[in-house]
Amino acid sequence: MGGLVLKLAPKERVLINGVVVENGDRRGRFSIMTPDANVLRLRDAIHPDEVNTPVRRVCYAVQLVLSGDMEPEHARQQLLRRVEELSQVFTDADSRRVLSEATEALLAEHYYKCLKSLRALLPREERLMAYQQ
Question: Does residue 25 sit in the same domain as residue 54?
Answer without folding.
Answer: no
